């Protein structure tokens, strides 16, 4: 579905990503984990075509992705960030927007918006303004908006990290259910191993812009790695 070969990203003479190879198969949820500043968001931005890499090549659905990424490809992906970027309008409109842009008929839009608001447990907020939502509700609406366009690849950059612990736990459980039923092809970024363990089949550990280990989350915790990787993982083994 998505592949990256030898990605290097340099900004202001600083090498932020070093020689990263990545692939994502249809139906897979792959995690990117690492401490703050390790390059997770940078890699996600490159994989989601928000930033061009300094060197290296991206492939999307088997085709090399050109430097200037066409709208036809951009429209096949959806991104959810840590802070929900909802528009200052109603909840319904926020979820409907992407479907309107894609030219869906009004009836289909209503069905889909209602369906996804329901899946994320926020259908009762449909008529409310996005401004009036709590952090957890806003993130649920953001996820509904992303799933509604049925993207070929979904990117989630720390979607729970601005939430308090119980809110986060609830959303993680609901998201896991949605993953199970949709098999959405997803890249999930988190600095919390618990998110990765619950939601992904495979994860890459980033440290200082490099992939230092990868595998199924349970294996990552079991295996021993370079000292600095083990030091990072030690926070999560109990
Ligand atoms: N546009 C940019 N210009 C310069 N430095 C950047 C830019 N984006 C990220 N960085 C730097 O790259 C490093 C990795 O950042 P980031 O990808 O946001 O890490 P993470 O998401 O893992 O916390 C940090 O040192 C950050 O300051
Ligand atoms: Mg980040």
UniProtKB/TrEMBL annotation:
Keywords linked to the UniProt accession: ATP-binding, Nucleotide-binding, Transport
Sections of the chain in a coiled coil: none
ABC transporter domain span: 2-233
Stored SMART domains: AAA
PROSITE patterns reported for this sequence: ABC_TRANSPORTER_1 (PS00211), ABC_TRANSPORTER_2 (PS50893)
Superkingdom of this protein's organism: Bacteria
SUPFAM superfamilies associated with the record: P-loop containing nucleoside triphosphate hydrolases
Name used for this protein in its record: Tungstate transport system ATP-binding protein
Organism whose genome encodes this protein: Desulfosporosinus lacus DSM 15449
Taxon lineage: Bacteria, Bacillati, Bacillota, Clostridia, Eubacteriales
């Amino acid at each position: 579905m998505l592949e990256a070969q030898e990605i290097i990203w340099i900004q202001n003479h600083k090498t932020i990503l070093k020689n990263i190879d990545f692939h994502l198969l249809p139906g897979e949820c792959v995690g990117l984990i690492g401490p703050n500043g390790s390059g997770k968001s940078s890699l996600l931005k490159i994989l989601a075509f928000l930033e061009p890499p300094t060197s290296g090549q991206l492939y999307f659905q088997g085709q090399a992705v050109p430097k200037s990424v066409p709208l036809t490809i951009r429209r096949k992906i959806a991104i959810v960030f840590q802070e929900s970027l909802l528009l200052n309008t109603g909840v319904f409109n926020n979820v409907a927007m992407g479907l309107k842009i894609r030219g869906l008929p009004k009836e289909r839009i209503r069905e889909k918006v209602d369906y996804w608001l329901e899946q994320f447990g926020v259908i009762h907020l449909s008529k409310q303004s996005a401004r009036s939502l709590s952090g957890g509700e806003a993130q649920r609406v953001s996820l509904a908006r992303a799933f509604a366009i049925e993207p070929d690849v979904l990117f989630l950059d720390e979607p729970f990290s601005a939430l308090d612990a119980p809110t986060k736990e609830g959303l993680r459980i609901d998201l896991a259910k949605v993953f199970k039923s949709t098999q959405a092809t997803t890249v999930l970024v988190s600095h919390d191993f618990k998110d990765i363990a619950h939601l992904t089949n495979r994860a890459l550990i980033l440290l200082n812009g490099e992939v230092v280990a990868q595998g199924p989350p349970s294996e990552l915790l079991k295996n021993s790695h370079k000292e600095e990787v083990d030091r990072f993982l030690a926070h999560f083994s109990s």
